[in-house]
Amino acid sequence: MDPILVGKAITTADGGSVHLLPKYGNRHGLVAGATGTGKTVTLMTLAEGFSRIGVPVFLADVKGDVAGLAAPGATNDRIAQRVQQLGIGDYRNEAAPVVFWDLWGKSGHPVRTTVSEMGPTLLARILELNDTQSGVLDIVFKLADDRGLLLLDLKDLRALLALVADERKDISTSYGLVSTPSVGAIQRALLRLESEGADQFFGEPALELADLMRTTYDGRGVVNILAADQLILKPRLYSSFLLWLLSELFESLPEVGDLDNPKLVFVFDEAHLLFDDAPAALRQRIEQVVRIIRSKGVGVYFCSQFPDDVPDEILGQLGNRFQHALRAYTPRDQKAVRTAAETFVANPALDVAEAIGKLGTGEALVSTLQDIPGQGRGIPMPVEHTLIAPPRSRMGAISEAERAQVRAGSPVGAKYDSRVDRESAAEMLANKAQARAEQVQAPQAATEAKDGERGIGGALQEFLFGSTGPRGGRRDGVVQQVARNEARRLGTRVLRGVLGGILGGRR
């Protein structure tokens, strides 16, 4: 497999090309540097390089300029000069095969997952629930499984929580203690998450990871670009999505060991936004994924302004480093420069700390994993002052018309663009409640109908001949009452006649 050209080393006059070996592409990486120093260009160059060798790529586009990968570039004097300096003989302007994604479905295909697929453990971490509340959430999911209720979106989860609150005494006996305050805390956490737009994230059709790992008919890897310019303003939802995506990737892909090239490369632009606003659970999960996911053929690349934006536990796992210029104007900046310098393998011909502050736009200090004769395989090479190779696609944003054209030609648009709302827990519980209400109302309706059928004739019949009460008691009508009175009078007359005869005979 041909190596990915990163640029040309200019540390010394006889510097050669700097490459990233595809077989070490799953050893992860970091692209750092101050604003405007060329980080995005480096990301685009790497994404194009992976795509050309058949590796699918996923990028979070925070500023909107990564979308330029979908359009061919335009050669100018600066690009022509850089191409000549690097000696790229096969350079030509071309677009990469791109699929756009967007959580809200505006700038790309909608990205969704179901509540069931996320699961109680992951959802509890996203909602930042305590142990007691997490236990109640476990009960909710178990109850849904036992009663055959599908949890697809947030309204399904709310319906289950309402059911648990109503039947908490019976449920506590069978599943464990459920308290009203715990249910209320979960509902409030869901409300906060929903206020950030999570109702768009949960639902069907759910994203299948296989659709992020596509290749074109000519063998190029598809570059998946997530529109994150609005998503990063909602840190809870942003972290939820990334946590779910990494977890799904981690749990779904099989172990493959070391391959000739990665199966998938993830690039997270503006990584400091991810770690600054993310809960501790997300950072822990990312650390776990970065440590282990290499063996599943996936490379994870972070992009941020300072190396220390990435936690040390994760930074130590990043084998390929691309450091653009840092301006040491503040004590924090000076510390970041020292940190960046200490993370590279020393080069006797280069003062790293001094060079970081003097790098021009489109230049970077680069150290990738290489097979060094006499030293070993996968060894970090000494850091090189490198001219970064220009991307072949457009360096800048694209128009809405161009985005719409790319989206219209997408192979997955018909699958994800239309939301599916099939019968799930919310609808099933609503139908059951309606059926119970109708069952309660049925006897009353039958009685009213019976009364209506009797009319005046029925009332007259009851008046004359009596009726039977609801408990079986008998109420006499006029006929029975008259007959009873006549019988009483007749009996009195007979009794008087008999008594009169007896008393008269004695006299």
**What would you call the shape?**
elongated
CATH architecture label of the domain at 4-111 and 207-392: 3-Layer(aba) Sandwich
Q: Count the helices. How many?
A: 18
Rounded average pLDDT: 85
Describe this structure in words.
By secondary structure, the chain is of the alpha/beta class. Among the domains are: 4-111 and 207-392, P-loop containing nucleotide triphosphate hydrolases (Rossmann fold, 3-Layer(aba) Sandwich), CATH 3.40.50; 478-507. 47% of the residues lie in helices and 14% in strands. It has 18 helices and 16 strands. The chain has helices at 39-52, 77-86, 115-127, 131-146, 154-166, 168-175, 180-195, 198-201, 235-252, 271-277, 280-292, 312-315, 331-342, 352-356, 400-408, 413-416, 425-465, 478-506; strands spanning 4-9, 17-20, 29-32, 57-61, 98-102, 109-110, 223-227, 264-268, 298-304, 320-323, 363-367, 369-372, 376-380, 384-388, 467-468, 474-475. Strands 2-1-14-11-10-3-9-8-4-7-5-6 form a 12-stranded mixed sheet, with helices on both faces. A two-stranded antiparallel ribbon has the order 12-13. A hairpin with a 7-residue loop joins β1 (4-9) and β2 (17-20). The model has no long low-confidence stretch (mean pLDDT 85).
